[in-house]
Amino acid sequence: MPHYWIYNSDPEIKRSMLSELGINDTMELFKDVPENLILKKPLHVGFGRYLSEYEILRFLKMQREKILHPKIPPFTGIEMCIHFVPAVVKELMLRNEFYTAYTPYQPEINQGILQALFEYQSVMAELYGVEVVNASMYDGSTALAEAIRMAIRATRRRKIVIARSVSPIKRRVVETWTYGIGVSLHYIGWDENDGSVNMEELSGKLDADTAAVVVEVPNVFGVVEHRLYELAQEVHRIGGLLIVFANPLALGVIKPPGELGADIVVGEGQPLGLGLYYGGSTLGILGVRRDMNLIRQMPGKLVGMTRSYLGERGFALVLQTREQHIRRERATSNITTNSALNAIAALIYVTWLGGDGIRKLSLSIAARTEYLREKIRSVDRLQAPLFTDALYFMKIPIKFLNKDCETVSKELRRRGILCCSDLGRYDSELRNIATICVTEVHSKEDIDTLVDALKQVVM
Amino acid sequence: MEWRQAKWDEKLIFEYPSLKQSHIVIPFDEEFAHYKEKFLDKVMKRGIMRLNVDIPNLSEPIVVRHFVRLSQQSYGVDVGPVPLGSCTMKYNPKVCNEALRVLDIEEVHPEELDEYVQGLLEILYLLERWLAEITGMDKCSFQPPAGAAGEFAGALMIKKFHEDRGEHRDEMLIPDSAHGSNPASAAMAGFKIIKIPTSQYGTLDLEALKSVVSERTAGLMLTNPNTLGVFEDKILEIADIVHSAGGLLYYDGANLNGIIGIARPGDMGFDIVHLNLHKTFGAPHGGGGPGGGVVCAKGALVEYLPRPLIAFDGTKYYWDYECRRCIGIIRAYYGNIPALIRAFVYIAMLGPEGLREVAEVSVLNTNYFIKKLSKHQSVVGLTHDTFRPRKHETVLSASQLKKDTGVSAEDVSKRMLDYGIHAPMMYFPLIVDEALMIEFTECEPKFEIDRYVEVLSKTVTEAYRDSNKLKCAPMNTAISRLDLVRANHPKKLILSWKFKNEIKELQNELKHS
Fold it and tell me: Contact B110/A6, CB-based, under 8 Å?
């Protein structure tokens, strides 16, 4: 059946091509497929026939009516919070040369993508305070899992110590990715007063087989770990590595993990100009300090600066001998497709903001967090915020004392507010704890509306 | 036939003169002014305040111009043909962009309650049913962010399946023609890789397979059609051999384009299948990603699929998290939603017959190309086995050409760029010497295939006359051939703007060249 996307499906063209081959029917080209495998009737897919562009869009418009948005921007966010995406990013993401391109294995014809990825690596290295960041991973959670596998290879040790304050979704992804390869995961709790890593518990867990310690900044409760420097010293003392998962937007106002001693930095790039899109695709950030042992163990693609034989500056994929298409079962990872286009989106966003813009944005989000922290205290029947002495960024944790978290979020949603997913869904120890996420899209009025609604709901 | 790519001497963003401050306007910023000091006080007390982010502050028009120029120095399917094997670089229908705009899900949060996103869940539910039907599987999970992650999920499913039966099976069988991601994924799940050779017919060597299957065989990972573009015609026997030994069959969906709508992996005996939405189902490749992976399973393997799965209880659509034996979650949340929406639109707009047309025309294109090429007397250096029809792709070898002229597969590829045609996949599969792997997909028109043959034959003729010209190619791209030895040299390696000394050294070198 001819189709508008397929020039050669035209009967006349098809006939001329078949006659070139000396056959009458394309099915003759499938003669080597066993007869009993050939489908005898059409697949039961689509709407039984092909749809026109208008029809499919009309169908989707109907579906859109069944997608109900909250009245004010959502306050939920275990792995991602809502952020503003500027028009510049949206428009440039539709440049056909970018989004329809293949992976730039032929550097001469894809210098633009390569230069953009080199710039991406550079701005991320600057934000995280390291020298090397790869050209992207799928998302934050898988980037963390790969960082852990990398630490195991680099240290040849088998034990990983993870803060329980790392988001439970990421911890579960890590459990999947380290399954059955003889890696043991050990969890450590938090300080009851300030929500940061419990240093005593940590010291007790470190030994000569510890490959790495993993913490998140801000952690799942929104708490900024403020003892990274001491943490790094502790871990390095036993020859292990420090892996820090950090929100890039927090790094406009707080010192970058690389500067405080992290060996591997990881992050979720969605806050940098990517939409929520119901969870993805997003962008995994993964970097290391400048150490050839670590660099050689990195997963994913790396773009390097070099020259052409005629003396022009140019960019190309480098250190590919780490990768699956060359090293196969001995590769550092199986990753092939990554998130290049989202990396370019994040780069455009960061460039649009500028270094000073990132600082301003960071601080503005931090100020909202302070406002919410103060405001939320007026709600009774809540332990809010969960930790009294903590430094919070973007999120405030609350614990429901008289009501079930799930009931509350349903009730709030009925009022047009999306808030307070139960962390207990992913880790039963965190039952009835939720975080409220505030970003640059939330006005004072939005936050006040939420707090008022919460007051009514928990009554 | 002259083609020229844009050539901007475009600076890095770090080389633009930066303003002292950014003039970005942050929404509602002034409402919270009072709270900034409070936060800064606390940060300062803890001694972790950041003072500077060294990224230039520019104006919006400068940013736009910079990236438009970079885009003009890039090349994708919307610019010209990208006929490289195994990656199915087909047209990305524009209606899919419009579909995403119409659905308006950019601000839909993944933690939204199911009942408020019924319109979206219904689409995903339908798509799941369609993909199960296309592959002949019972159920699909959208979790894998890409194909390789689907392979890894599949390998873990196989591992847990055997473990639950108390069997110790630690060997994964993989053909020597397989994509590198297959052995890499299996190794990540802790399997030992047993390589199966390819026979003289370009298919899996059955005798070799029989000799290695044992009580330690966990499974076989197979691509069908394989990377030579040849259909594994003994697939039912292969499945039988592996199943009889207690192993499972994994289908790498990278090459599904060659048989979609004509035959199904499920009917061939495969237990697990992964799909690449950015190959077979029209989602874009994005200069490397994001793509979209789906992993599907049959029978007892369904229980092992990564969760959550999309479900319908007769009145409402919901995510089913129930996981008794499942391998867990592969990534945060549900899947690469935009790629899934694109695949939905793609399938709906082709319908069952259109999907079959995809396979028919992609196979017709391959064989038409082979036939046309074989007629060109000038193409003496490129050998090609023609004993069987190829499916979605074919592999040439420049081995003879290299012996005769010193011109390599890489040189041929670079010269093709000069004509505004993306090079073939080079040096893959590994079992073919000086390999050039070519896949037109269903989208390339007859006249582009004809042109491709002409360019290839011209290039080969040129190789015999003046091989130097090929060694210097490309000349018409944004930059001429890059020095990859220098790029990878451990002492000269430059991986970011922070490699200041190395960059200075490079600049000096360029000044004097």
Answer: no
